[in-house]
């Protein structure tokens, strides 16, 4: 399997007043195409920063980050934004759905930014809502859906541009245990279909659904299991 994400000696720091806080201290990591990995670690370990770098929401201070054979250090902000829209699908703990829009319209959103025509957007959104088990909820707004259904809408939305990587940030954090397990089984099904999934979680029961667990501590990889 080839790597869809490759980090070499990646470092990242932030200014905190007059201090420079080193958050990531030389991360080396390869994520293979079709892998399902979890990133774990205590608060302040650097897992959110690592997620933001892989999701192209931030740039490393030094080191090399390659996404799907593109060296991100050579790209300007416009190219980086285009690569993010094409290669990365985001799934958040808080769902991040637009309240006034139907499930169908929420799922169409990423395709609007990619300039896809209306008929295409509608057909693809419907296809992925059916794939996550919400074919009968197309015209429902978020407040008419349960937490688990909202997360399924968010997962459908993350899939519509056929990204190389799904990034899931605490995807079960706002769900009860039973619903959370249903969402994790959906991730396992997506992974079996070839989707690469990178998930940040603090929950070891959730992490057990993935194939590999990366544990961070103080900005460095402590172990892989």
Automatic annotation (TrEMBL):
The GO terms describing molecular function are: ATP binding; ATP hydrolysis activity; transmembrane transporter activity
Q: Which Gene3D superfamilies match?
A: P-loop containing nucleotide triphosphate hydrolases
The UniProt keywords, alphabetically, are: ATP-binding, Nucleotide-binding, Transport
Which Pfam families does the UniProt record give?
ABC_tran
The UniProt entry's GO CC annotations, sorted and at most eight, read: membrane protein complex
User: What are the TM regions of this chain, as residue ranges?
Assistant: none
CDD domains assigned to the protein according to its UniProt record, in alphabetical order: ABC_MJ0796_LolCDE_FtsE
Q: Where is the ABC transporter domain?
A: 5-225
Matching InterPro entries: AAA+_ATPase, ABC_transporter-like_ATP-bd, ABC_transporter-like_CS, MacB-like_ATP-bd, P-loop_NTPase
State the PANTHER family in the record: CELL DIVISION ATP-BINDING PROTEIN FTSE, LIPOPROTEIN-RELEASING SYSTEM ATP-BINDING PROTEIN LOLD
Family the UniProt entry places it in? Belongs to the ABC transporter superfamily.
Task: Identify this protein by name.
Answer: ABC-type antimicrobial peptide transport system, ATPase component
- What species is this protein from? Methanocella conradii (strain DSM 24694 / JCM 17849 / CGMCC 1.5162 / HZ254)
